[in-house]
Write a structure and sequence with these properties.
The complex is a heterodimer of chains A (247) and B (789).
Chain A lengths: L1 H20 L14 H7 L5 E11 L7 E10 L3 E8 L3 E6 L4 E4 L6 E3 L2 H14 L3 H7 E6 L4 E6 L2 H6 E8 L8 E7 L3 E12 L12 H6 L4 H11 L6 H7 L1
Antiparallel strand pairs in A: 1-2, 1-11, 2-3, 3-4, 4-5, 5-6, 7-8, 8-9, 9-10, 10-11
Chain B lengths: L1 H28 L5 E2 L13 H16 E8 L5 H12 L5 E3 L5 H8 L9 H9 L2 H13 L17 H14 L5 H6 L1 E9 L5 H22 L2 E6 H35 L6 H22 L2 E2 H9 L1 H14 L19 H19 L7 H28 L9 H17 L5 H17 L16 H10 L6 E11 L2 H15 L10 E3 L7 H10 L1 H4 L4 H8 L4 H13 L8 H4 L9 E3 L5 E8 L4 H9 L4 E5 H35 L9 H16 L6 H25 L6 H23 L4 H29 L2 H7 L1
Parallel strand pairs in B: 1-6
Antiparallel strand pairs in B: 2-4, 2-5, 3-4, 7-10, 7-11, 8-10, 9-10
The chains are: A alpha+beta (247), B alpha+beta (789).
């Protein structure tokens, strides 16, 4: 009997502790199911693309916005390389295999662990790949302005405390496909990310490892960048103990 | 003497009724009658220091108050609405708190005043190694990242994200364990935690359980969801359900059997008044005393209590049979109006004493439940005895005719059989045979089982649910953990750290295999070090000041942070901040006013337990707790001590016999229960039934009942108005009623009750044969008894 009781003690504690950190979701009763095509029309259509980005972060506390810019390489089956070129050089790799990394020049590879990175990775990957199922799972979606603007509100109360909403606007003023993402977070902080000049790279074969040439060329082939593309393809090589070896 | 007995008994009887009345009124005015089905009372306590014991007990109580529901859906879209529906419906139950766990925000609010004392090892290293300019650059980089908007703390309060990053470290390194990937990939899930606000009555438990079942069915229909249940609550509820069924079966069936038998023998409904009143008085008094002392009554106490009917009824049976047992030597002329049945009272009193000796021996057990049963039984039989003595003279008559010729016939047949089997038995030869059997049993002992799991048989469905639920959470070793005791917070930390560094020197053991409240927070010494290190951030001309200057922010903001930093200098953080919140987190930590500290270290599954145990053995303030082996050891000790106490009980009764009868001759009365005990053991041996603590406890009652029979035979043997058939018929009647109760107990679904019932069923049957043999030998040689017939 006592063993059974103890098993329960253990399970109880275990679940409790897990619960204390798990971001828990509460579904909205008035969940609206939006037509997948409406949402998809606003998000990138390609599975593989590259683009430039400009990010502008505003905070009440800061007297001026924090502006950064760089390039993106996205592969819907592998993940995202977010390369910041200004004001600092650094690359962030969000992979579809729940492993995320950051590379800062002259510093060892940093594996990004924690619920905030898991959430951000899942958020960016689902938006850029127009993963309607995941978007509908995580957000209440409202479409407005003649289908040129969608507003995503997190369903989870816990998430909503930090991430109030995400607005996505299709930008028709430029020739190439582009979109603006407005992330509204706690303490009235907003981050605008403009993703411009989206170049469709769908014609490359994702199953062929040699077809990462666009990734390499995009990132101005250096030894370090080769690692970045490899991280996207084989993130498991860089996680945990493997990462220590890399260092 | 008779007058004084009846006067005293009336006084006591009124006192008993008054006590019952006031206890019931008082309990009804408070929370009503409280019933418990707690499972901890079935486990022996692990005796440690008082603080450790109370810490274990608090943790155990906490565990019993929590249960979990894992909602799973094949379609991930349904998981949130399904969970939400279940949560909102569960919240309608006022006895429980749904999802009342510590949130990250609550944890941060609690820790915020102490944030200048907190740093992760990585942060300590960076503050030590990196120049301020590099930290400022890193902070600026961070501020440009998207994820910085999602950080736990705000830029205003924590510009370098030191506190936010610490919380993140706390979550990822200690608390965030992902569920097993196999399950995660197959189905979406969410976990709902439920905290039971107070002890639930059996009905409330049952209502809650059936509500959960109904909601699970609704969820299955509405969302295709499954609900997996996990927690002690479900085991307790199942045990209570089984006990309730047992109570109904035992009390109704044994009452019906006994009533039928009484009506059949006495052919009168009037005869039922005394036994029924004695049963009601006994049960009510026993219940009141239990409620008075413990505040509630345990369900298993009632199971055992319901089997008391078989013993309680004996007083009425003997009363009816032996009412004419007047003190005939003193008053032969008054044979047909027995107003002063001294011999009967004397026999009933002796019978009461032996039964009380038998039952009170149960209180020597370390098991709380057996102590409660002992108190319940002793009070029950006392009150019943009292009501028979007090009310007997009002509501019964010696002229009541008995139709028990079939009892006489059975007894005569058994006597004939005994004559054939044992033609020339003497007390001496009987004793010698018993001695031989005892020696045989010592040489060839019956199988023994002290495994505590034997006494708890949960339903396979609940076990399966528990097994399934364990796939969704991180798992610690079942029933195996470490306890650290210390005289100061610093000592607690140093003992913890020393142990971990020693135990992890083995390549197969890592720090991640342990979890404790202690490791979540730095020691007082580390806190001081962390505070000094953060001077680099918040101090004058520190990182914050320079960063704010670079970002064009006014210097006032940095000064406000400096002020906060300085005001936190004397604050000291302790695990009690988080782990003493009663319903939020389990109490993995305890401290008392004398600066004694206790902390639990949980061990993750798959760890090298042998190595951990070996390292802990060398540590003075660390105890490795293996609840299964400790419980086994505790049960073994109790079983051995029960055997010794049984011998003591025999000794006490022997002394009582010598004092009362002023002769060693009547020590032979002990042959009846001794034979029953030894032969029961022989049968256990033959049928390979492992002997447990609860069988041993049953032997105390075998002793009490065997002595009852012997005493009545002895007491009535020299009463001319009572022939030997009367006494033997009364004993057979009593045996049948006892067997009805304990025979039903042997069929119980509760293993403890089953062991107890089986011992009594076999033991008391042998007691009856022993009593017949004793009677035959006491009155005349067996051969002459047969020839008379």
């Amino acid at each position: 009997m006592h063993q059974r009781l103890s098993l329960i003690i253990s399970s109880t504690l275990a679940i409790l502790l897990l619960l204390s950190i798990t971001t828990k979701s509460i579904a909205e009763n008035n969940q609206t199911q939006n037509s997948a095509s409406d949402i998809r029309a606003l998000l990138p259509k390609s599975c593989i693309f590259s683009s430039s980005f400009q990010q502008e972060k505003k905070s009440q506390k800061l007297p001026f916005p924090l502006v950064s810019s760089g390039q993106i390489f996205f592969h819907c089956q592998k993940g995202l390389i977010w390369e910041k070129k200004s004001p600092f050089l650094e690359k962030t790799i969000f992979t579809t295999q729940e492993a995320n990394f950051r590379l800062v020049p002259n510093e060892p590879i940093e594996q990004l662990e924690g619920p905030q990175y898991d959430y951000l990775s899942s958020l960016l990957l689902s938006l850029l790949s127009a993963d309607i199922a995941t978007i509908n799972d995580k957000f209440t979606v409202d479409i407005a302005s003649e289908n040129k603007h969608i507003k995503l509100t997190p369903k989870s109360n816990t998430i909503r405390k930090r991430l109030h909403s995400i607005d996505i606007k299709k930008n028709d003023s430029v020739e190439n496909e582009s979109l603006d993402i407005y992330i509204s977070t706690q303490k009235n902080q907003t981050t605008k990310i403009s993703i411009n000049n989206i170049s469709n790279l769908d014609n490359i074969n994702p199953n062929n490892s040699t077809d990462y040439q666009p990734c390499l060329s995009l990132l101005e082939t250096t030894d370090s960048d080769r690692d970045v593309c490899d991280m996207l393809k084989n993130p498991q090589k860089y996680t945990g103990l493997n990462l220590n070896n890399q260092k | 003497m008779t007058l004084s007995i009846t006067t005293i008994s009336r006084f006591f009887f009124i006192a008993v009724l008054a006590f019952v009345f006031f206890t019931f009124i008082s309990s009804l005015n408070n929370n009503g009658l409280q019933f418990s089905s707690s499972l901890t009372e079935l486990s022996p306590s692990i005796t440690k220091g008082p603080l450790t014991q109370s810490a274990i007990s608090d943790l155990s109580d906490d565990v019993q108050r929590r249960f979990f529901l894992v909602v799973t859906t094949p379609d991930s879209k349904n998981i949130e609405p399904a969970t939400d529906y279940l949560k909102s419906r569960l919240s309608e139950n006022s006895h429980i708190l749904v999802d009342n766990t510590e949130t990250i925000d609550e944890m941060m609010t609690t820790l915020n005043p102490y944030r200048f004392k907190l740093l992760s090892p990585q942060q300590r290293m960076e503050l030590n190694d990196l120049p301020a300019s590099k930290i400022i650059e890193n902070t600026q980089r961070r501020l440009h990242r998207i994820e910085s908007s999602l950080e736990f703390s705000t830029f205003e309060e924590d510009p370098t994200n030191t506190f936010g990053s610490y919380i993140s470290h706390l979550l990822s390194s200690h608390l965030a364990e992902k569920p097993s990937s196999a399950t995660k990939l197959e189905q979406a899930f969410d976990i709902i935690s439920v905290y039971i606000k107070h002890g639930l009555s059996i009905e409330e438990q049952s209502t809650l359980s059936s509500t959960i079942n109904q909601l699970a069915n609704s969820l299955s229909v509405k969302y295709g969801a499954s609900v997996i249940r996990s927690g002690v609550f479900f085991f307790a509820e199942d045990a209570a359900k089984k006990s309730e069924a047992d109570i109904k079966l035992i009390s109704i069936a044994s009452s019906l059997l006994i009533i039928s038998l009484l009506i059949f023998v006495f052919r009168s409904f009037f005869i039922l008044i005394l036994p029924l009143l004695s049963i009601v008085t006994g049960i009510l008094f026993a219940t009141s005393v239990n409620i008075y002392f413990y505040g509630y009554i345990h369900i298993l106490t009632i199971v055992f209590g319901s089997s008391l009917i078989g013993i309680i009824i004996d007083y009425s049976i003997h009363y009816f049979y032996h009412l004419r047992a007047n003190d005939s030597l003193a008053d032969k002329s008054n044979l047909h109006s027995p107003k002063t049945p001294t011999a009967l009272y004397r026999a009933l009193l002796l019978s009461l004493i032996t039964s009380i000796i038998g039952y009170s021996a149960l209180s020597f057990s370390d098991l709380d439940i057996l102590k409660k049963i002992a108190l319940f039984s002793c009070c029950g039989i006392f009150a019943s005895w009292l009501s028979v003595i007090t009310l007997g003279s009002f509501i019964s008559t010696s002229k009541q005719k008995k139709h028990d010729s079939f009892f006489t016939s059975i007894n005569e047949k058994i006597n004939t059989l005994l004559h054939l089997i044992l033609p020339k038995v003497s007390f001496r030869s009987w004793s010698i045979v018993l001695l031989a059997v005892a020696i045989l049993l010592i040489v060839n002992t019956p199988k023994i089982n002290d495994d505590p799991r034997l006494f708890f048989k949960p339903s396979p469905e609940i076990l399966e649910q528990e097994k399934q639920a364990s796939q969704f959470n991180q798992n610690f070793e079942p029933g195996q953990y470490l306890i650290i005791t210390a005289k100061s917070l610093s000592e607690l930390h140093s003992t913890h750290d020393d142990f971990l560094s020693e135990v992890t020197s083995d390549k197969n053991v890592s720090k991640k295999q342990f979890f404790s409240a202690i490791e979540l927070f730095p020691s007082p010494k580390e806190q001081e070090l962390n505070y000094q290190l953060q001077h680099k951030i918040y101090g004058p001309e520190g990182i914050t000041e320079k960063l704010f200057e670079r970002l064009g922010l006014p210097s006032d903001s940095a000064k406000a942070l400096l002020k906060n930093y300085l005001s936190a200098a004397n604050r000291e953080i302790s695990p009690s901040l988080l782990f003493n919140k009663q319903d939020k987190l389990p109490p993995l930590w305890a401290a008392d006013s004398n600066n004694n500290y206790v902390g639990f270290i949980l061990i993750r599954k798959g760890s090298d337990l042998q190595h951990i145990k070996e390292v802990s053995l060398n540590k003075e303030n660390i105890q490795y707790i293996d609840t299964l082996s400790l419980s086994t050891e505790a049960l073994k000790t109790q079983r051995s001590s029960a055997s010794e106490l049984l011998l003591l009980a025999y000794g006490l009764i022997a002394l009582l016999l010598v004092i009362i009868y002023r002769s060693y001759r009547y020590l032979s009365l002990l042959l009846i229960p001794a034979s029953a005990t030894l032969l029961t053991l022989v049968l256990f041996k033959l049928f390979n039934i492992p002997l447990t603590l609860f069988h041993s406890m049953g032997f105390f009652l075998v002793l009490g009942l065997g002595m009852d029979y012997g005493i009545f035979i002895k007491e009535m043997s020299n009463k001319k108005e009572i022939d030997s058939n009367t006494t033997l018929n009364a004993i057979l009647f009593s045996t049948i009623t006892t067997l009805c109760s304990f025979g039903l107990l042997a069929l119980s679904a509760v293993p403890i009750a089953q062991s107890f019932g089986l011992t009594l069923l076999i033991g008391n049957t042998i007691n009856f044969f022993g009593a017949l043999l004793f009677s035959a030998m006491l009155n005349k040689p067996l051969s002459s008894a047969i020839s008379k017939e």
